[in-house]
Amino acid sequence: MAGATIDKIVSLCKRRGFLFQGSELYGGLQGTWDYGPMGVELKNNVKRLWWRSNVYERDDMEGLDAAILMNRLVLKYSGHEDTFSDPLVDCRKCKKRFPRRPDRRHREVRRGRHARLHRAAPVQPHVPHADDDIAYLRPETAQGIFVNFKNVLDSTNRKLPFGIAQIGKAYRNEITPKNFIFRVREFEQMEIEYFVKPGEDDETHEQWIADRISWYHRYGIKPENLRQHVQAADELAHYAKACTDLLYRFFPEREDEDKQYEEVEGIANRTDFDLTCHTKGGVLRFADGREIPNEHAVMKQTYFDDAAKVHLTPYVIEPSGGVDRITLAFLMDAYEEQTLEGGKQRTVLHLHPELSPVKVAVIPLARNKPEIVAVAKQIKKDLQSTGQLRTMFDDSGNIGKCYARQDEIGTPFCVTVDHQSLEDNEVTIRDRDSMQQERVAIDRLKSYFFERLSL
pTM for the full model? Predict the structure, then answer.
């Protein structure tokens, strides 16, 4: 049995309609990927399960969907605007551009007089009628939550602790997007800002770390493929008191085991940094000691503690993950190459049923027999009408090819309608993981799948 590498996942995703290169028709655009028919279903399932676990299954969470375009003052007082420019080096000799980083300084020295410094421009769409005609595409979804803290608090009458969850697009000027959807310029984030009283932050931080690890395990990530990395003091962002990264084994082919693991999610203790920045009369404080007083906010972002009769600025715990990286992790963990009896090869995605893009595939054994096809299409229609059983009618080839296709899509069950089905009103159900088959009455199919898929 063999596992996944990103190269194998790329091949599978193109072949089975999970992801395509962005703008492929015109040669592509580096760092952009389009989710195909299977990919959009998988990605939506990832988001749905995250939302259900963190919003619907908790009593202390509200949802939000803030605008992507933001007033530039939001990112001025968050501290982002001062760091939007990334240093680049243009080589006049080879005509290539390189990121200017300390670990690449030796290359710049070798280029000598051929090198000159450039800075990557931030993404700055011009907005008609805006005060200064400039707005930013947000680099993270978090700021939309912070600037709406008081709005959510006042409209819901929440008491601490409580959180605000958001799923949305973010944009960054990645100089070298690479490794498929692992590093891209346009991506989706799933973020929570969980507000607590100062002094309760350490315990809450540890609880969120445990909860997030449990979520990954619950939906199929193997424990050995997920690690924790507690950031050292010199690794922390200037606003963070503590941060633990969850690392997934994205690169099993690397010889150095430590380098096989890269971040899939971070859980940070951001203290009161953000609400202090975004409050009337607040102050943005940089690590180098610089301060920018907030002269533009129109309200205070504080919480009134009824018991203590004081206004306080909550601390914030932030679990933040990228939808694309999380989707990639689930794909990689589910991927398996098997050698069956007789040397036959099989590739299968053992996706958790709630993640699977398709729950059931219905296959007519003889696609040239109208009566068999009609029964198969009616079964597909009946199952799909439940609204919970995404069902595919598959007559793309012989039964073996159909099974192979559904295995690679990750479909948990296949239903085969054959000649005998016309006589006994039963069909053959094949399980993806065990490949075992059993006959089941057509009128029992809904209850059969709801029970086995835990729907």
Answer: 0.89
